[in-house]
Design brief:
Distance between the termini: 34 Å
CATH superfamily of the largest domain: Type I PLP-dependent aspartate aminotransferase-like (Major domain)
Oligomer: single chain
Number of helices: 13
Radius of gyration: 22 Å
Structural class: alpha/beta
Length: about 400
C-alpha cells in the first residue's frame, strides 16, 4: 500500500526527475554520490528531501566562510544590478579594488596578478608566467602532487590515473621529485628550470604537510639556480592551514609566485596568480581569459576576503585545527594508521578503503572527502564551531568502531 500523500509523492517524483536528468546528460567525468544538494547555509547543506548534513567538505574546499555567507550574497546581489561582465581590455572599479586588497594580504613583493576562473586555470597561468618571465622551459613538481586536470596542470599532477589517458599529448617538460626531500630537489633543479611548484600541504595526495625546512631549502635552491618558487595555495591558502598562506609555516620566506582559487570568492568561480613585480609583466596578448577579473567575481572575492580578515578566520583555523587533531588522536580510533594535517585541513589515513566510511558518515548526516583510496579528508568551513567539529569527530568514531 502506498502511504505517501499526493504532495509527498509529487516531491519524490521531482527528486527522481532531477537525478535522472543529470544521469541522462552528465559528461560521465564525475563519480556521483547518491545525494542531491539544493541549499546551503553556514556549515550545513540540505538535500532535495529536506535532510540536513554537516558539511566537512566545504564544497571541495571552497566554502571557507560557509555556504551563502551574507556578505557575499549582498555583494553579488548589488553587483548583478550594476555590471556583471567587463573584460580586462577595460579598467573596472571592482577589479582595481580586488587588486589592492590582494596586495595588502600578500607580501609587498607579490604585486602583479592574473585573474581567471579556477585553480586549474590559475596553474596554467603560473606555468606560462614562469616560462615567459624566466625564459626557461623545465618544471619541477612533487610526487603525489595535484595541480589540476587541464593539460598544462595535468603535467604537474603526479597521479597516473589522471595522467595516463593523455600520455601521448604534450604535458610539458616536468620532473617529479620526492616530497619533503631536498636532496631530490637539488638533483633536479638546474639552469633549465623555470619553476619549482609545490603545495604546502598535499591535499588530493593524502594531506601531507611540507616541512618548514623543506620550504626554506627550496627557496635557497631556487635563489641559487635562478628558478621561480611557485607555491600552489589553491587548497591551503586564505586561512585553511591556520595562517593566511600555507607557506607561512616558514614565515621568513617569500615565494616568487602564488596560485590561489577555491575559496577566494566565497563560492563564486575565481582563480588568481600573484607574482613578484620585480620579475616583470607578461607580454601583451601572451595570455588571457574572457571572464577573468569580471566585476561579479571580483565583488564576491572582495566580500569573501574581507570576511576572512575581519572575522579572524586564519587564527580560528589554527586553534580549532590543533584541538581537533589532539581530540582525534586521543580517541585511539580503530583501523587508523595516522592522523595528520595543519589547521582545518586534516587527513585520517585508514588501513582499509575510505569509500565505505564516507558513505556511512553520509548516512549519519556528515559529508567528508577522500584523499586517495585510504585517506579520509576533512575540510570544514573555517567558521565551524567546536560543537560541530565534535559532531563530526563523534560520527567518525561511531563509524570506525562499527
Amino acid at each position: 500500500m502506498n502511504l505517501m500523500t499526493p504532495a509527498a509523492s509529487a516531491d519524490k517524483d521531482q527528486m527522481d526527475t532531477l537525478r535522472s536528468l543529470e544521469d541522462r546528460h552528465t559528461s560521465g567525468a564525475y563519480s556521483k554520490r547518491p545525494l542531491a544538494l539544493v541549499r546551503g547555509s553556514g556549515c550545513t547543506v540540505w538535500d532535495d528531501a529536506g535532510r540536513a548534513y554537516l558539511d566537512a567538505t566545504s564544497g571541495q574546499g571552497v566554502a571557507l566562510i560557509g555556504h551563502s555567507h551574507p556578505a557575499v550574497v549582498a555583494a553579488v546581489t548589488a553587483q548583478v544590478a550594476q555590471l556583471i561582465t567587463c573584460a580586462e581590455a577595460f579598467y573596472n572599479d571592482r577589479r582595481a579594488e580586488l587588486y589592492a586588497l590582494l596586495a595588502s594580504l600578500l607580501p609587498a613583493e607579490l604585486d602583479r596578478f592574473f585573474l581567471c576562473n579556477s585553480g586549474a586555470e590559475a596553474t596554467e597561468g603560473a606555468l606560462k608566467a614562469a616560462r615567459l618571465l624566466t625564459g626557461r622551459d623545465q618544471i619541477v613538481a612533487a610526487r603525489r602532487g595535484f595541480h589540476g586536470r587541464t593539460l598544462g596542470a595535468l603535467g604537474l599532477t603526479w597521479n597516473r590515473d589522471y595522467r595516463e589517458p593523455f600520455a601521448g599529448w604534450a604535458l610539458g617538460s616536468v620532473t617529479h621529485i620526492a616530497y619533503n626531500d631536498l636532496d631530490s630537489a637539488a638533483a633536479a633543479i638546474d639552469e633549465r628550470t623555470a619553476a619549482v611548484v609545490v603545495e604546502p600541504v598535499q591535499g588530493e595526495g593524502g594531506v601531507h604537510p611540507a616541512d618548514a625546512d623543506t620550504l626554506r631549502g627550496l627557496r635557497r635552491l631556487c635563489d641559487e639556480r635562478g628558478a621561480m618558487l611557485v607555491v600552489d595555495e589553491i587548497q591551503t591558502g586564505l586561512g585553511r592551514t591556520g595562517t593566511w598562506f600555507g607557506w607561512q609555516v616558514a614565515p621568513e620566506i617569500t615565494p616568487d609566485a602564488v596560485i590561489l582559487a577555491k575559496g577566494i570568492a566565497g563560492g563564486v568561480p575565481m582563480g588568481a596568480v600573484a607574482w613578484r613585480g620585480a620579475l616583470g609583466t607578461l607580454p601583451a596578448g601572451s595570455h588571457g581569459s574572457t571572464f577573468g577579473g569580471n566585476p561579479l567575481s571580483c565583488a564576491a572575492a572582495i566580500a569573501a576576503l574581507t570576511s576572512i580578515r575581519d572575522e579572524g578566520l586564519p587564527a580560528r583555523s589554527a586553534e580549532l585545527g590543533a584541538r581537533l587533531l589532539e581530540d582525534l588522536r586521543a580517541r585511539s580510533l580503530p583501523g587508523v594508521r595516522e592522523i595528520r594535517g595543519r589547521g582545518l585541513m586534516i587527513g585520517i589515513e585508514l588501513r582499509d578503503r575510505v569509500t565505505p566510511v564516507l558513505q556511512a558518515l553520509q548516512d549519519r548526516g556528515v559529508l567528508a572527502l577522500p584523499a586517495g583510496k585510504t585517506v579520509l579528508r576533512l575540510l570544514p568551513p573555517l567558521i565551524i564551531t567546536w560543537d560541530e567539529l565534535m559532531r563530526i569527530a563523534d560520527a567518525i568514531e561511531e563509524v570506525l568502531r562499527g
